[in-house]
Design a protein that fits this description.
Blueprint (H helix, E strand, L loop, with lengths): L20 H8 L7 H4 L7 E2 L5 E5 L4 H6 L6 H12 L7 E5 L6 E4 L2 E4 L4 H18 L3 E5 H9 L5 H4 L3 E4 L14 E6 L2 H6 L3 H19 L1
Parallel strand pairs: 2-3, 2-6, 6-8
Antiparallel strand pairs: 1-3, 4-5, 7-8
Bound molecules: uracil and iron/sulfur cluster.
């Protein structure tokens, strides 16, 4: 597929009336809804409790996730799990997924350098997220960083402005009709990778935990 053409999108790979996350995961393994499947190792689908009240949405799998086939198992994932614990969220209440299910990268020599997914990848991959929400029916959706925020709220979303407070969703999304799912609360926070990159890691981590405490209180 030439890269200038709009991707076909994931919809045709999504089962018509899915009954389980496992079924979605199996179907997503064969997705060719955009060109990212071609260079990545495998689809990295969401993982967690099938009726988790708290659903985390990240950006896309990283290098480690691409190789292991599981979301948030690398350094950002370790930090996220620690923050979930410190915020008092029961890890068995959590399901973790990504806005885009294949790793987008650029090869530099032998190194694979993370590239932020573009709007076309985000749109192409959205049907998987919609299908996940439809089955999980979470109480609260935690948005990790700008990419996830743009998927759920539209391109004008800014983490710095939105973080740390409960927002109704999808009612407050730019196009709520894009998400035929039950109304839930959404809470945005910074991406755990931003904590890893921060000059003042301790303060950044504290901010992440404080935001997650708002989510913890909302599901209690
Ligand atoms: N960063 C993400 O956004 N998702 C992952 O799965 C890993 C790192
Ligand atoms: Fe399909 Fe999403 Fe992977 Fe693109 S990134 S091929 S839409 S699963």
């Amino acid at each position: 597929m030439p890269r200038t053409e709009a991707p076909v999108g994931a919809q045709q790979w999504v089962p018509a009336e899915p009954t389980s996350i496992d079924q979605l995961k199996s179907a997503a393994a064969g997705c060719e809804g955009c060109e990212l499947y071609a260079d990545a190792t495998q689809t990295v689908f969401g993982r967690g409790a099938p009726h988790a009240p708290v659903v985390f949405v990240g950006e896309q799998p990283g290098d480690v996730e691409d190789q292991q086939g599981l979301p948030f198992v690398g350094p950002a994932g370790r930090l996220l799990r620690e923050a979930v614990g410190d915020a008092g969220i029961d890890p068995t209440d959590v399901y973790i997924t990504n806005a885009v299910k294949h790793f987008r990268f650029e090869l530099r020599g032998k190194r694979r350098i993370h590239q932020t997914p573009g709007p076309a990848h985000i749109t192409a991959c959205r049907p998987w997220l919609v299908a996940e929400f439809g089955l999980l029916k979470p109480k609260i959706v935690v948005i990790l960083g700008a990419t996830a925020g743009k998927v759920l709220f539209g391109p004008s979303f800014r983490v710095t402005q939105a973080r740390g407070r409960l927002m109704p969703w999808p009612a407050s999304a730019q196009h709520p009709e894009d998400f035929p799912v039950d109304e839930v609360q959404a809470l945005a926070t910074i991406h755990p990778s931003a904590v890893l990159r921060a000059d003042d890691r301790e303060t950044a981590y504290g901010g992440l935990v404080d935001d997650l405490k708002v989510a913890a209180a909302a599901v209690r």
